[in-house]
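Re-running Synaptogyrin to confirm reproducibility after the cluster update. Everything else is unchanged from the original entry.
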Amino acid sequence: MDGAGSFGAGRTGSAFDLIAFIKQPQTVLRVLAWIFSMVVFASIINEGYVNMGSERLHCVFNKNADACNYGITIGIMAFLASIFFLALDIYFPQISSVKDRKRAVLLEMFFSGFWTFLWFVGFCFLASQWSHTSPQELPLEQASDAARAAIAFSFFSILTWAGLTVCAVQRFLLGTDLTLFTTEHMGEQPPKQPYPSNDVIGQTTIPVNAYQSPPLIETVETRPPGYKIAPAF
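Result of re-run:
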């Protein structure tokens, strides 16, 4: 029973319920994070670079290649991480060890929190570079939609990954409470006290020695020969 029902999952080895899994908030947020990250890096890769009449391509975000590289990098890594954690959510109920479940939840919690911060930095970075982009230097009509889409979905990614962080924290706190009732902790309970006596208030316990058999009564068969009973006066 180790790990049964801990950290927000069902009992170990229980049947997988696809409908219930899809309805979970963390599953919805995971799918949204996957879509948003794909929009960010796909927009920058496909239309985030403009040609200035030469073979060299310039990043649409104020000709700053670091801005485009940053958006592409965190977008691709968030895309892959969303797939990984989605698969982990499916496999999570099959993990029987409480310690392994705790490690998985901690990994998700710290990664989601860290990626929320990276998306916030990316949103500020892209928005700042876009605000300094001059239409005279770059033909923005070629990539303005892609730049705005990357900025907008970077902001949406902040919200989704922050929501995933909250879900992971809730699962961790729930698991911490439930592990108090696992078999590992049950063994740490103090030894049980002996059963109380059968005495009832107002009654006295009768000792065992009081139930002795009565003394033997002399009978005729047990009297020795020649034995006479003294007459009574």
